[in-house]
Structures are given as structure tokens and as C-alpha cells.
Amino acid sequence: MVDAQTIGVLVTATSVTVAAVYYIMTLRTQRMNMKNTLETRRIGVVQNMMTALSSFEGQKAGIETANFEWKDYEDFERKYGTDNDVDAAAKRFMLWQSWNGMGLMLRRGMIEAEDLYDIGGSMVVMHWKKWEPIVQEIRRRYWGSDYLRDFEYLNDEMMKIKIMRDSSYKVPETFFKYVPDK
What we know:
It is elongated, with a radius of gyration of 27 Å. It folds into two domains: about 1-45; about 55-175, no CATH class. It has helices at about 5-55, 55-65, 75-80, 85-105, 115-120, 125-145, 150-165. The chain has about 180 residues and is mostly helical. The model has no long low-confidence stretch (mean pLDDT about 85). Helix 4 (about 85-105) crosses helix 7 (about 150-165). The termini are far apart.
């Protein structure tokens, strides 16, 4: 026959087991909720960046800066530097920081390269080609080799996809300028 003490031990053991299982299930649910919340936030950040870049002002900044022309870095600074044209510099910085932020999220695995490419990230390739000499000079003179590294990383990843989808693609020498075939 089972005595009261044995029944008490069994009830206690069963209660502890049920509590442990409930606790584990609660932790799993919380972890899933946190993961979903983080994923939602990441999507929101990318969406905000894309909204800014695809807005009228973002498009205008992209077109205006794409049409900047200069002979060398000194000429660039005279025309578009922060000392001489704050609006031009602000437009450029807005674009650069947006692309750098997207590159950072891509490098950290927070977003997928194919998704960025498909929502317009391929444009980064032409922008990087235009801005690379300026960014390299800014790195050399002021900010060091890691300045806008994720903008460059984003370009590299977008270029890989571009070449994978169209192996004959070459980044055009001109940007936003019509050049008739010869």
C-alpha cells in the first residue's frame, strides 16, 4: 500500500515537472515573440530607408548628386563641399549614410542581399562608381579606411548579384547622362 508520504513526494515531483515544462514553454514563447519583434523592427528600418530614398526629396537628391561633375578632389570641394554648398553636401551625406546603413544591416545578416537588390539596391552600383574616388580621398585625408565601408560592402554585394543575373553587365562610364551609341 502507498503511504501518504509517498503520495506527497509524487505530487510534489509532478508539480515541479509541470512547472518546469510550463516555464520552458513560456521561455520559448517569449524568445519567439522577441525574435518576431526584432524582425519587425529590422524590416521597419529598411522600409524607412527605402521610403526616404524613394521619396520625392530622396529621388531629387539622388538625381542632383548624380549630375555633379568635377575634375579632381579640390574642384569637388570647391563646388560641393560643406564650406561652399551645404545643401549639396547634405544631399550627398543623406544618400551615403542611407546606403551605409543598408550595407551594415546586410553585412550583419539582418537583411538579405537579394531582397535589397530587388527593391532597387542595384542603383548603388552606379552611385558607388561615381562616389568611390571621392570616398577614397576622404578616407585618405580625414576619416580613415573604414569610412563608409558598408556603402562599399553594399556595392560589392549588389555587383555580385548584378553579374550573376547578367554576366555581360558593365558599370556605365557616364551616369544619368544620355550617351548615344557610336
